[in-house]
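Final report, closing paragraph on structural work. Over the funding period we assembled a curated collection of sequence-structure pairs, and we close with a single example.
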Amino acid sequence: HQDEERALNDSEVKDLRTKATVLLSNLEMEMKNVTNFSHHESWLNGRVPCDGISERCHYLDRYGFIHIPNFASIAEVQDMKQQMEELTKDWDPARKTLAFSTEAQKNEEQGSDDYFLESASRVHFFPETSALESDGSLKKEFLSKKLAALNKSGHAMHIIPGAFRNYTTSCKVKSLVKELGWMDPVVPQSMYICKNPKIGGVVHSHQDSTFLFTEPRQSCLGLWLALDEATLKNGCLWVRPKSHFEPVRRQFKRNEEHFTRQVIEDCSNVGKGDLQKPKMVFDTLQKDTNIDWEGKMPHNSEPPCYGLLDDGFIPIECKSGDLLAFVGELDHLSLQNYSSEKRHTFQLHLVEGPDAGISW
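Its predicted structure, as stored:
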């Protein structure tokens, strides 16, 4: 059976888990050997803080991510799951379905679809490709369980009243973001990722700053909250420590040929150029001959996944309620969920605002 052939077996999971434990322990030991934070330089702004920093901030700046256990309570997790169930009940897939994929070509196609673009200020629903018929309609087996068909919902979950907004505006989120060094954080994007059993698709290697590109410096911060246990079996996140010191390789931006430069400078969404051209395109900023997997999966990433380890990626397994915070230039990915266990997450993306001298 294809699912069994491509899924990690128990022996491979045990081996990967052991290797990941060693690699993460090595990072911890490296941190312990740093006895003086006074010369610490912030990833966010390049400054040396004058009033000291926390160990969590130092870890994030040094490795590009930090795992915080038990960040959200059981009640908060349950409330978010319940609100997602209620939102999905109101989704009418007969009106519009747009499958979501992280493949580079698919990103450009999605970026020209109004349903995708308009989700910036609304909550729209994006099923897995495998949950759709060839005509784009939802397969019959998912009509009575629509949530099980979804890849994600977004990208303005934090705007609507309820559990998502309560969490986004909570003191714990505000306090953490401030501790990590953000001065004027704003939330341009939030999403609920399903990674459903058997059909939850792969998320290709990428940097979040590709999609949330800020100037004059990068300032994206991802807050990835596990609402279910995230394991090697059901598609936990893999991160590449210290890759955040590499530049952003691509920028996903509005296409000047479609909109014209003046329209883009005016922050308008009305195309006045060649309307046959795609609305969104990738602009290659940096080519690194050592990294040939941008927008794809690294070689030998299929089970037993040792190729990912060879390329510097580490799997980060999480319990429900755990948080992974990581900066926008960090290279990360996740594998397909071939298991029978769902892996729901709620994700916030923050950037610095104008009071910190940042535009996006």
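The longest strand covers residues 185-193. The chain is about 25% helix and 20% strand. We thank the funder for supporting this effort.
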